Task: inverse folding
């Protein structure tokens, strides 16, 4: 888990998230953008700061979107995830009809819908009140643990993640960086 | 293999319930894969979700299309009203020599082979092309002098307005009467008349009588005077008889018959289309053959059509270019407004080639809906214009009208213009990076 105090360092996060290429990824050049797209669709689920749900799709279709893209059978994936995340009643609503917390839960469901090995959450609680934030982090951790998914989380909320059961393994202060970024690595 | 390792089109590791698909959906999947239908559905969902923006976009395009359709409908209606009498009446395609000439079989063969000549038959000297007709069985009991008009298969003058086949006269025993002659003789199709031809040979008056079956009566526009359409054989027989020659086929005595490869004094010629008249006239003038045509009437309408067409297409071009620029700007702004949504799609794994279809498909939706709206408004306006002006300006005929293919062409042009403008948005979408979804909070 990476703790990131300043969002200005997103550029360091993008390559990890597959949203931009690493320079060393020479093998992806050529159709690099599409190769990265394939990588993201199959192996990574995203939970964005603002949820990132598509406003014109219902919660159900938002959750099903990664599976549709991979042409995977839909089954009851959306219902199962929504039930576990407490938004089963909201499946047929549009994101605009949901509270911020419900939207974030829907985003978690979408990130897990196609059972990716990695979920990347970029400050998923930044726009949520503290009470809901703790609940969201606990759900995220619980769900990823249940499904055996590696969670990469970027957040300011150190105390929150400590309370969710994370332990600091190492600290690093990058004095050379003008933003004096602090990187903290935790181990569950 | 787990689901996440499955290929794009893969279906390994299937969960319990398979998504039901229609046969049409299966066909589409086989043809274009699963990604394009998914993108098309997403584009439509987005388009429908933003119904207010989409609606205004449709109205904006319809506002350009409606006046163009109405203007074109008026132009087409007025020109059609002017052209219809010319195209429906074969007289306007007739090319008649003013003076007698010397037209050989080779000349007829070469002119008949031209693609712009619809009908061509030889004509004998005017003086040798008349007979007397009487109808023995008729109550009228009149004898009239009629002109012989050479005819044959495909004679445009015998094409009735209601497309009924009158049929051309054949052999020495069949004729088609002009409407005027039929009325004076009191006979109709299926009736019988007698032809009387008189000549003076060696100071003796010789008369032959020829029983003739009336194969039909020509429309009044075909020949306004007293006339009779006859076969080439009968025309030649009458001329030969009047010239004192024998006609062995009819047992008419006289001097030696003419050779088969005789020349003629004139011809009856019809151009294939109205537009062919000018070319044929020019060709005959080049051969020093003075002709009479309806070129002045045709040119007047054609010039009017061309000039109105130029004015229309200038207006249309200005409107379409203006609309394309406005629409391209609107699409660009729309893509910029939705950059976060597009970046989320890219982050989810949609490829550049997938999401560039978004603005293009939405432009196609706008074009289709605007066209439908414009067509509906056009029909309403057309009804109003025709009710107001058809009785006074159109002579009872509609002054505004469009054919189905005009509307089809309008749909194609509209869609092409909208898609061309939306390509700007497609390029903008292609430039959006997935990292915007992470960065742009």
Result:
């Amino acid at each position: 888990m990476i703790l990131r105090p300043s969002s200005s360092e997103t550029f360091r996060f993008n390559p990890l998230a597959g949203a931009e290429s690493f320079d060393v990824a020479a093998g992806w050049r050529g159709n690099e953008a599409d190769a990265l797209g394939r990588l993201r669709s199959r192996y990574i689920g995203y939970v964005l700061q603002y949820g990132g749900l598509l406003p014109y799709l219902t919660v159900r279709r938002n959750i099903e979107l990664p599976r549709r893209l991979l042409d995977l059978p839909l089954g009851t994936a959306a219902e199962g995830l929504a039930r576990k995340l407490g938004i089963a009643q909201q499946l047929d609503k549009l994101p605009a009809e949901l509270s911020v917390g419900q939207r974030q839960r829907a985003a978690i469901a979408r990130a897990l819908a196609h059972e990716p090995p990695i979920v990347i959450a970029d400050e998923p609680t930044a726009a949520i009140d503290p009470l809901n934030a703790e609940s969201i982090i606990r759900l995220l951790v619980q769900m990823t643990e249940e499904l055996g998914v590696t969670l990469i989380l970027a957040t300011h909320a150190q105390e929150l993640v400590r309370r969710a059961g994370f332990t600091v393994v190492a600290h690093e202060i990058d004095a050379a960086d003008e933003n004096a970024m602090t990187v903290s690595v935790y181990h569950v | 293999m787990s689901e996440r390792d499955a290929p794009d089109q893969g279906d390994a590791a299937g969960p319990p319930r398979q998504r039901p698909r229609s046969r049409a959906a299966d066909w589409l999947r086989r043809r274009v894969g699963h990604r394009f239908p998914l993108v098309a559905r997403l584009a439509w969902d987005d388009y429908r979700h933003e119904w207010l923006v989409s609606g205004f976009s449709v109205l904006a395009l319809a506002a350009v299309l409606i006046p163009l359709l109405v203007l074109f409908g008026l132009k087409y209606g007025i020109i059609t009203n002017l052209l219809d009498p010319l195209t429906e009446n074969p007289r306007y395609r007739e090319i008649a020599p003013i003076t007698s000439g010397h037209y050989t079989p080779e000349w007829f063969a070469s002119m008949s082979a031209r693609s712009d000549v619809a009908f061509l038959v030889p004509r004998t000297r005017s003086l040798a092309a008349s007979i007397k007709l009487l109808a023995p069985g008729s109550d009228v009991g009149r004898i009239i002098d009629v002109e012989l008009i050479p005819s044959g298969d495909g004679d445009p003058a015998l094409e009735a307005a209601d497309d009924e086949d009158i049929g051309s006269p054949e052999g020495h025993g069949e004729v088609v009467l002009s409407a005027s002659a039929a009325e004076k003789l009191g006979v109709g199709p299926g009736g019988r008349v007698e032809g009387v031809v008189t000549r003076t040979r060696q100071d003796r008056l010789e008369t032959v009588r020829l029983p003739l079956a009336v194969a039909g009566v020509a429309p009044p526009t075909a020949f306004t005077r007293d006339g009779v359409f006859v076969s080439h054989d009968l025309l030649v027989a009458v001329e030969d008889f009047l010239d004192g020659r024998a006609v062995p086929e009819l047992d008419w005595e006289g001097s030696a018959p003419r050779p088969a490869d005789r020349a003629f004094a004139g011809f009856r010629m019809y151009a294939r289309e109205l537009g062919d008249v000018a070319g044929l006239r020019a060709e005959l003038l080049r051969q020093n053959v003075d002709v009479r045509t309806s070129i002045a009437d045709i040119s007047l309408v054609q010039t009017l059509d061309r000039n109105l067409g130029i004015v229309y297409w200038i207006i249309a071009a200005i409107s379409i270019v203006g609309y394309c620029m406005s629409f391209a700007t609107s699409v660009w702004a729309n893509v910029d407004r939705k950059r976060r949504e597009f970046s989320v799609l890219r982050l989810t794994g949609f490829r550049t080639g997938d999401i560039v279809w978004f603005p293009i498909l939405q432009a196609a939706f706008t074009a289709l809906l605007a066209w439908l709206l414009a067509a509906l408004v056009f029909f309403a306006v057309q009804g109003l214009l025709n009710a107001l002006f058809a009785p006074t300006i159109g002579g009872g005929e509609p002054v505004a009208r469009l054919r189905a293919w005009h509307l089809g062409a309008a749909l194609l042009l509209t869609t092409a213009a909208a898609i061309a403008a939306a390509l700007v948005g497609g390029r903008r979408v292609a430039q959006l990076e997935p990292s915007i979804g992470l960065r742009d909070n």
Notes: Confidence is low (pLDDT under 50) at residues 1-11, 22-30 of chain A. Strands of chain A lie at 2-3, 44-47, 118-122, 150-155, 167-173, 182-187.
